[in-house]
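INFO batch 0412 | record 1 of 1 | parsing
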Amino acid sequence: MSQPIHEIRVALHARTLDIAALGNTREINLAKTLVQQARMLLGKALGLLGEATPYPKADDAQSREIAPRADVADYKPNLPGEAIAAIKTVRAALQVELDALARHRRELWARDYGAEAEFVYRRAYTDLLLAKMWLGEGLAKLAEKKPAAAEAPVQPPAA
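INFO prediction complete | emitting tokens
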């Protein structure tokens, strides 16, 4: 029953790598953080569904062990070179994950797993929705930019 959550977490790891490849703006960084947060919340959902944690010593202050990250994608970003196309590609991929989360939620919550599990699942969905929206805001900023030719570098004053 939890396999779809693992698959979505792997896909979200890939989306995080895609978003990181987009550059370094406020909007992109917010989107990346929200996707990372959604991924973590889905990990919490797995625990609430009764799955054993892949990080058994994470809360053991005496342990120096750090477990490898779970549900990672063997993936290298391959986005279009043009910024608008790259952002739209990532937004479309996030929509695929939003749709998968919505489908899985309907299947999963036919049984009652409790309020906390429902909360973290809904929060993960909301975070992905917000990430997509922040990337949309990044598109709006690109559209507002002046054409590159009009952005001539400022010349230093003549001596």
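INFO post-check: The chain has four helices and no strands.
INFO record closed
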